[in-house]
Amino acid sequence: MSQQLYLSSSPHIHSGETTAKVMRAVIYSLLPACGVAVYFFGPSALSVLLIATLGCLATEVVCQRLMGQPVTIADGSAAITGILLALNLPPSSPWWMTLFGAVVAIAIGKQVYGGLGSNPFNPALVARVVLLISFPVQMTTWSAPAPFGSGLDLVTTATPLGEWKNAVMLTGQMPAEMQGSMMNYFLGNMPGSIGEISALALLLGAAYLFYRRILTWHIPTAFIGTVILLSGLFWLINPEKYPNPVFHMVTGGLILGAFFMATDMVTTPVSTRGMLLFGVGCGLLTVLIRLFGGYPEGVSFAILLMNAATPLIDRYTRPKTFGTLQQEKVQ
Amino acid sequence: MSLKTFAGGIHPPDNKQWSSHKAIEDCPLPAEFIVPLAQHIGAPSVACVEVGQQVSKGDEIGSAKGFVSVPVHAPTSGEVTAVENRPHPWGTSLPAVVIKADGEDRWSTELQPADPSELSPDEIIEKVRLAGVVGMGGAAFPAHVKMSPPPEKKISTLIFNGVECEPYLTADHRMMLEEPERILQGVALLQYVLGAEQVVIGIEANKPDAIALFEKHCAGTPVEVMPLQVKYPQGAEKQLIAAVTGKEVPSGGLPMDIGVAVHNVSTAAAITDAIIHGRPLIERVCTVTGPAIREPKNLRIRIGTPLSHLVEVCGGLVEEPGKIILGGPMMGFTQLGFDVPATRGTSGLLLLRAEDVSSHPESPCIRCARCVQACPINLLPTTIAAYARRDLLAEAAEYCAMDCIECGSCSYVCPSTIPLVQAIRYGKAAILAKKRSTQVS
After folding, report:
1. Smallest Cβ distance to B248: which of A1, A3, A326?
2. Mean per-residue pLDDT for B91-100?
3. Given a cut of 50, is residue A330 above it in pLDDT?
4. Residue B318 within a domain
5. CA–CA separation, A119 vs A109, rounded Å?
6. Residue B5 located in a structural domain
7. Parallel, antiparallel, or unpaired for β B260-264 and B297-302?
8. Closest residue of chain B to A1, computed from CA coordinates
């Protein structure tokens, strides 16, 4: 036999799915949200997106070179971190802050732990929280959208969640009149971070990931379901003070967080029970922080806290091995 | 109505279209047969013929050694030319009887047909043992052992495996289409021996013709034909039982512990031959298929036929194969060449091209949990594999490594192409070796 003959133990066939393909699909799924952001916020959103993504790629190259490891930016994971970081930043973010965030995300959020697959926390969220604590002014300066062709300039304003929190802090009541309508919130015509504004665009991307079987329903459903139930409960108790569940869903980072951040495979549980528990935990913490915490938005903190709980959740939600459940019943 | 199945599993492309429509052909006899003495799980048999001796088709040439063992028979008439170690499908050289065919293909005169209604269950079991019948699904476990459970383990459900969930293979499918009576006679014999109240034939829904045929044949009989959802590894014993009965075989236990016995449909046919025709197991149906063979076929082959002969009968190679596999692509064994013989467990000879088997380099686990969702035993393959690769055997065992059935679903779905089942297989062997060494010392 002239040619090379492969010898190996079974299986001899493979699904053909690769990490790079999975990562590429995630990047595609984020493009609608990026497009909406550029439409509403113009060149400033585009520059944040570019700086964050290129910054993450460059940091990964530098880290891996320094450690003498093969450079793996082709797997797409650093690019995803960059895009997700940008989507979590205000459109008016200064370039140096965005770049600093990118370095933090990859160097401290990912490479110090050993790179892809080894980081306990979502790298983009680590960077966002570091920035939020380090640069509170820049990180909470929000712009009202100025859609492409409208001739408007970006003006500083509050996010819907911030608007509500300010009013509640001052008066203990809902604001008499919110600036936006639910439909505008849903489409993305509201102040907010680059990626969180359009629930519609995010859902479109998420639908693609479901179709590609990269997302499973467990975490997003448990997360959003818990937010709806818990915020609904408070709303029923006191609708004068607490906003309704739909408001919770379409404003702020819930959709972005539930479908794209809380579903990061590396930092979330592996069993279905674990995923459900993780989602419920994220939902509980989000509502508690939004309604009672110092920050108007709690999605990032909620996901990071649940990331920390992931090893514990994995330990206690280990699937029951086939043939052990009935044995226990018999004994 | 949704069809029954088990939890977990995968959907690889079944690739059965290469051979599923081709009727079984009798494979012409090769000039020389290499009959390995170890063809089944359990103790190998011992040669009972000498070089130069003339044998008839069906003569015993290897005697069983112990209870979990079966004799081996001459696949044709001819002369024993060697009793020596020969390359074996298991990857080493093992004892084999080499027979030069005389071309007469003359049956031994000692074989006697019997009327099963005059035989007791114990007599049937003994005849099955003497005929060398083993599980024909691929594992080749002696059938008589599964037919004689200890008296306290009553078998209430008897399941026949017509699933054939391995991609490419169509041998059982063709058997069901072409020889339903031969299978059903064996089904009746097994039901009589085991005294089972419920008899089910499980067939996956991708074989609607076989389902329809068996439903016709079984109408008005106690045998139930159960169509099952198409999913790998449904043909695995525990998964088939779960699909059919909804019950789980206890971890570390046997099907008989929950009153179930499973036999392959082709094993039932071999039992019919053994009892009604008095003929030992010297032939089986084997699917020769894959993109590298010119003319895929379902062949009725004699045990001991060299693979090179099968390739020749199927028109030769289209191109040099990248991988030679005995069995299916999910659980089959790769071979070094075509000089090894087909054994009783050879359900298929699969020839893949280099482009079909080249794999991506491994990358780190991204905890995507596809392996966890695919595992039919509910294990955490990525965790066990990580422990096994670091020789943390106690931890691997604690995560139930020994429960793994090695179906390979985890490795199939892994986007990081981590050799998960391969690492777990290594871990299992290391755990067993450690256990044995501590028992000895």
Report:
1. A326
2. 94
3. no
4. no
5. 7
6. no
7. unpaired
8. B320
Given pLDDT bands bounded at 50, 70 and 90, which one contains residue B440?
Answer: low
A8 touches chain B (CB under 8 A): yes
Structural domain count of chain B: 2
Q: Which domain holds residue B126?
A: 116-276
Nearest to B361 by CA among A128, A124, A75: A75
pLDDT the model gives residue B1: 56
Our CA-based measurement puts residue B336 at a distance from the nearest CA of chain A, in whole angstroms, of 7
β-bridge mates for residue B301, sequence order: B284
Q: Which of B336, B411, B415 sits opposite A19 (nearest CB)?
A: B415
Asked whether residue B382 falls in the same domain as residue B262, the answer is no
Q: Could you identify the residue written with the tokens 């779905």? A: B413
Pairwise CB contact (< 8 Å): A323 & B248: yes
At B411-437, the pLDDT tens digits run 999 999 999 999 999 999 999 999 988
Per the domain annotation, does B44 fall within a domain? Answer: no
Interchain contact A244–B (C-beta under 8 A): no
Write out the two tokens for A269. 């549980």
Q: Higher-confidence residue: A283 or B441?
A: A283
CA distances from B343 to A21, A64, A264, B306 (A): 41, 52, 48, 9
Last-in-domain residue among B276, B294, B315: B276
How far is A25 from A39, CA to CA, in rounded Å? Answer: 22
| Pair (B267, B376) in one structural domain | no
Residues counted in chain A? 331
Q: Spell out which residues of chain A touch residue B398, defining contact as CB-CB under 8 Å.
A: none
Rounded to 5 degrees, φ, ψ at B245 are -105, -15
Q: What's the Cα-to-Cα distance from B225 to each of B4, B6, B210, B219, B247, rounded to whole Å?
A: 12, 17, 10, 9, 18
**Total count of residues recorded for chain B:** 441
Please give the share of chain A, as a percent, with pLDDT higher than 90: 64
B360 contact A CB<8A: yes
Residue A64 backbone phi and psi in degrees, to 5? -70, -35
Contacting B residues, span 23-62, partner chain A, CB-CB under 8 Å: none
Strands B60-63 and B93-101: unpaired
Q: Which residues contact B170 (CB under 8 A, 6 or more apart)?
A: B16, B19, B20, B22, B164, B287, B289, B298
Find the residue in A nearest to B402 (Cα): A321
**B contact test, residue of A13, A216, A272, A276 with most B CBs within 10 A:** A13
Predicted TM-score (pTM) above 0.95: no
Q: What is the DSSP letter of A302?
A: H
Last residue of a domain, one of B214, B248, B276: B276
Interface subset of B 231-260, CB within 8 angstroms of A: 238, 242, 247-253, 258
Residue B313 covered by a domain: no
Q: What angle do CA B75, B79, B81 make, to 5 degrees?
A: 105
The pLDDT of residue A329 is: 46
Query: Which residues are paired to B98 by β-bridges?
Result: B34, B82
Residues on chain B touching A268 (C-beta within 8 angstroms):
367
pLDDT at A178 > cutoff 70? no
Taking CA–CA distances from A6, the nearest residue in chain B reads B323
